[in-house]
Design goal:
By secondary structure, the protein is mostly beta strands.
């Protein structure tokens, strides 16, 4: 979409319907030393009704020293009958950093949504920074109190490799600072437009671009 001598804004454009039964989508991202990359999704992704047949969406990301990645993804919608593994692996060099947004939507309008297993592994300098699994395979179990309850949207913004600013301020239980340099902002919502995390994603991305 645009570029400089140090980085680029790149759009992801699907050329066919994804995800359908047996799809195995792999996105490899590498940000070089001192470079910056912003990934823009032109539309959300829908995991279609596959009548239980598995599909997989994977992102494999590496960021070299001094590199910066911004990827504020569009909603990932899991339709009734879908059965999806969504896997994100991030390897940061000791001074690499990233801001990622992941919005998982369980079902289209009027649906409960199919099965989805969301796994995230982040390492910095070879050491674990974040290892998380959200097992949302069973619609009955995930609707229990203490899990998702009545909510069908799981919105997450991750600052990885650096500590984001305290603003915009979030209510208790929506921001989680990691032991090492990083933080998560997470909101459970009934719809995507009621999530409070859009300004958080923009502020954190700007803060990272400004040097953290």
């Amino acid at each position: 979409m645009r570029s400089t001598d140090r980085g680029a804004v790149v759009a992801l454009v699907a050329t066919s319907a994804v995800l359908v039964a047996d799809d195995d989508i792999v996105i490899d991202v590498h940000v070089g030393a001192g470079a910056w990359l912003e990934i823009v999704e032109t539309a959300g992704t829908v995991a279609y009704n596959a009548f239980g047949t598995p599909s997989r969406w994977s992102a494999r990301i590496s960021v070299a020293d001094g590199g910066r990645l911004t990827w504020l993804g569009e909603p990932f919608v899991v339709s009734d009958g879908a059965n999806v593994d969504r896997v994100t692996t991030v390897d940061l060099a000791s001074t690499g950093s990233a801001v990622l947004r992941e919005t998982v939507v369980l079902g289209r309008v009027g649906e409960r949504g199919g099965a989805v297993d969301v796994r995230t592994t982040v390492r910095q300098g070879g050491a674990p920074l974040l290892v998380e699994r959200l097992d949302l395979n069973d619609p009955a179990e995930r609707s229990h109190p203490g899990l998702l309850g009545p909510h069908r949207v799981v919105d997450t913004v991750s600052a990885l490799g650096w500590r984001p600013p305290p603003t915009p301020e979030l209510v208790a239980g929506q921001r989680f600072d990691l032991h090492a340099a990083g933080a998560l902002a997470r909101s459970l919502d009934a719809t995507t437009h009621t999530s409070p995390l859009a300004p958080v994603a923009r502020r954190w991305a700007q803060s990272m671009a400004d040097g953290g």
